[in-house]
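Researcher: Structure prediction, please.
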Amino acid sequence: MSVREDIAKNIVQVLQGITDPAVVLVSRNPINTTDLSIAQYPALIVRTSEEEKLDETTGGVRIALINYVIQGYVRAGSSATTSNNNIDTQKNKLIEGIEEALEVDRTRNSLALNSYVSNISSDDTSLYPLGRIDITYTVQYKYTRGTT
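Model: Predicted structure follows.
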């Protein structure tokens, strides 16, 4: 198994343990949100994104920066477009839960040199009554030349 795959599995495992808010579904596969029931929110998708290989070597070990995108979905408490739909509050709570869970071990079970949330974006206008967040999670890890 590759280091990048082991890191992705660690991220999924950590996100599955979030209890506030209680994350119901964490997947590495795309989710069709129209197939989910109301009870399956919040839902998360972890995708491997771009990776930058740095050409710095020490004893055959190289450094890479890889980004994982964590897509999060929440559902409004009400389908009415009112100030009471709480969708923004739910997104903020989910972001906070994800950040806190990932911060506990920035070495991703000793697989990484460092890891951190590097970007957060949000959308609820095109998906209403769903809200979506995208968190870019950057991981710095080392690998041996010729392997990943």
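Model: The chain is about 20% helix and 40% strand.
Researcher: Thanks, that helps.
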